[in-house]
Amino acid sequence: MKRVVGSKWARVNGVASVIAKVIEIVLWLGLVWLVVGVVLLYVNRSAIVVDSDANRVYADSISVSGSFLDMSVYLGRGRMRDVVYYPLVALVLVAQLVILVCFALVFHAIAGICLRLKEWEYSRDRVEGPFGENIVRSFRFVGTCLVAIPVVSWVIVVICALLGASVSVGLGSVVFIMLGLLCWSLAHVFESGASMQHEMDGLV
After folding, report:
1. Per-residue confidence band for 135, with pLDDT thresholds at 50, 70 and 90
2. Phi and psi angles of residue 44, each rounded to the nearest 5 degrees, phi first
3. Which residues partner with 63 through β-bridges?
4. Could you tell me what percentage of the chain is helix, strand and coil, using 3-state DSSP and rounding each to the nearest 5?
5. Are 45 and 52 in contact (CB under 8 A)?
6. Cα dihedral 63, 80, 53, 100 in deg (nearest 10)
7. What is the pLDDT of residue 127?
């Protein structure tokens, strides 16, 4: 019965690993697309204009939004906010790039955790278990990335506000802080479990 349950969880972890890897690939592709869009926008910089809401700049069919997470930066300046303010565009792009990279790294780490758990279910005697150093390090890394996402976003928004931009900030990004702290707590729990396991192995 225990072996059947273990096999079932191994399949679940295998599916979760594949899903996380697919999401990671999509995020890296999104990052590449964003970089390509920035290059094309720079090539056509003489044709860049601000849309009517001042929350997006575009040239031909290429555009950059001033929104990231639950925050928005209005990219125009002047009385009607109809003049492109390039420092704001650059700062928003930095925030979007950092967010994409952090999310891609988070799902890369999650895929690795699920894959290690799957391998452990199939060969518990030969593979490092859930209380191993790799799992602990991965949880800490995921937690750091999740905390970094809103922190970097808030810093960018503050800088944009100091430059005179109109900004709007929601509270939804606090969820990432909580998830990051949860991952750090899990890392601590797994580290404590590893210490207890080593002590029991020493007694045996």
Report:
1. confident
2. -100, 30
3. 58
4. 70, 10, 20
5. no
6. 50
7. 52
Q: Is the CA virtual torsion 76, 157, 149, 95 positive or negative?
A: positive
Determine what percent of the chain is predicted with pLDDT higher than 70. 81
Q: How confident is the model at residue 4 (pLDDT cuts 50, 70, 90)?
A: very low
- Here the tokens at position 9 are 């969880």
Tokens of 134: 């790799």
Residue 52 has phi, psi (to 5 degrees) of -65, -25
Query: What Rg, from alpha-carbon coordinates, does the chain have?
Result: 22
Query: Which helix (H) or strand (E) segment is 65 a member of?
Result: strand 62-65
* H or E segment to which residue 129 belongs: none
Which residue type occupies 180? Answer: G
From 136, 138, 108, select the one nearest 23 (Cα to Cα): 108
Q: How far is CA 166 from each of CA 36, 187, 192, rounded to the nearest angstrom?
A: 27, 39, 47
Give the angle subtended at the CA of 22 by the CAs of 99 and 131, to the nearest 5°.
80
Contact 81/50 with Cβ under 8 angstroms? yes
Phi, psi values for residue 35, rounded to 5°: -65, -45
